[in-house]
Amino acid sequence: MASITLAELAEKLGAELHGDGDVIIRSISGMDKASEGQITFLSSSKYRKHLAQCQASAVMVKEADLAYCNGNVLVIKDPYLGYALTAQLLDSTPRCATDIAPSAYVSATATLGEGVSIGHNAVIEDGVELGDHVQIGAGCFVGKNTKLGANTRLWANVSVYHNVQLGESCLVQSSTVIGSDGFGYANDNGQWVKIPQVGRVVIGDRVEIGACTTIDRGALDDTVIADGVIIDNLCQIAHNVEIGENTAIAGATVIAGSTQIGKHCIIGGACVINGHIEITDGVTITGMGMVMRPITEPGMYSSGIPLQANRDWRKTTARVMKIEDLHKRLKAVEKQLEDSK
């Protein structure tokens, strides 16, 4: 188990230490469950009342909360960020793979950098390039001529099709598919004619992709995911989508083809985004948002009907169904008022 002294942790976080720097920190816990050997954090002043009963060996707080603490404290500008960085330092997650398993298939034409690890029953096809310290989990498939940058990790059963490019220090969770065919068909008198998808998926550096997400390859041009993007579980990214730097996309979101999403956007869970539209930089879309038109101004956008008791929802729905009739009646009243002037 990883451990660190409180003094060492303060130095790495750039935090101000108050108390015993020799205290050993072995893990992180929530404020209400923390015990000896653990550190916790206070990111919102509304939880100050719990500080007095906290049993953690240390707590990370903002300067304004220092006076409410009794034990060992690290004062830091952003305790939640401190929590994230501390979690990285104490991370005990195992490697995706260790060494190259005897059951793995690695093509003789594949190129492997230093320290590459490949798990049991993984398949690395012709022309693949794996950078230094890449980790390929058990049961993964990496298709022909695909390139994975240094320190990129694929957890078990990830499928990466042919001619895909992932940058450095990417993380892909289990059962995700990258480079599958986009949904491209032409209709010939009622029969669907498949359009081969000949573009690629190009993913930048430090991109993280959740489990069971699908990113389709481009139809002609590429599907592009820029540096620093994070994508949650169970998302669908269709062909030729482009996502800008450091955008975050929460679970179960569906993005239709050829949509362009800007930098530093936040897209809530279960959103549906129409195809062939553009969303500018700095947009936040709250959960279950339905985006049918371009968004040209930064800001927060919402749609959908919040949960109601069923009897209230039925009334709301009944009234919504009458909107067109109400609109006509309103226009008639407005005309009458105008004519009476």
Automatic annotation (TrEMBL):
One of its GO terms (cellular component) is membrane. Residues 22-89 form the UDP-3-O-[3-hydroxymyristoyl] glucosamine N-acyltransferase non-repeat region domain. The keyword Transcription does not apply. Keywords: Acyltransferase, Lipid A biosynthesis, Lipid biosynthesis, Lipid metabolism, Repeat, Transferase. The active site is at 239 (proton acceptor). GO terms for biological process: lipid A biosynthetic process. It catalyses: a UDP-3-O-[(3R)-3-hydroxyacyl]-alpha-D-glucosamine + a (3R)-hydroxyacyl-[ACP] = a UDP-2-N,3-O-bis[(3R)-3-hydroxyacyl]-alpha-D-glucosamine + holo-[ACP] + H(+). InterPro entries: Hexapep, LpxD, Trimer_LpxA-like_sf, UDP_GlcNAc_AcTrfase_non-rep. This is UDP-3-O-acylglucosamine N-acyltransferase. The lineage of its organism: Bacteria, Pseudomonadati, Pseudomonadota, Gammaproteobacteria, Vibrionales. Pathway: Bacterial outer membrane biogenesis; LPS lipid A biosynthesis. Gene3D superfamilies: 1.20.5.170, Hexapeptide repeat proteins, MurE/MurF, N-terminal domain. It holds the Pfam family LpxD. It comes from Enterovibrio norvegicus FF-454. GO terms for molecular function: N-acyltransferase activity; UDP-3-O-[(3R)-3-hydroxyacyl]-glucosamine N-acyltransferase activity. Its EC number is 2.3.1.191. It comes from the Bacteria.
